[in-house]
Amino acid sequence: xKIKLTSIMVDDQDxxxxxxxxxxxxxxxxxxPMGEFKWLTVVSPEGPxxxxxxxxxxxxxxxxxAEKNFQKALFDGGIPATVFFVDNIQQEYDRLKKLGVVFNxxxxxxxxxxxxxxxxxxGNLIQIHQPNN
Length: 133
Fold this sequence. Notes:
By secondary structure, the chain is of the alpha/beta class. It has helices at about 15-25, 65-75, 90-100; strands spanning about 5-10, 25-35, 35-45, 50-55, 80-85, 105-110, 115-120, 125-130. It starts with a strand and ends with a strand. The mean pLDDT is about 95.
């Protein structure tokens, strides 16, 4: 079993694409119109090109707002929606701060590694993590 696609709920796909590509550094892979929304995925330039992150709109009428409520509950609770691993967290943290990224949790060192939590501007908290070697 392999992970090939995972999704993150976003409140604005265009804003999410801009943040995830221009700020975080991911690369757009798919941008396929699907009615009001898009099949919009990004990949890491540092990882396999076949592991995609779907920027999923949180306005799916079939879910009657449940996904938006879940997203807000995670955000309000300070719980990251996902975690991205980095090779040099201090360097990445400094780079993102210079780009104006808001961190809800500054760098924290623990026995398992160093983490920080940022606001993706699309309704999510994202944790960046560098494990201890």
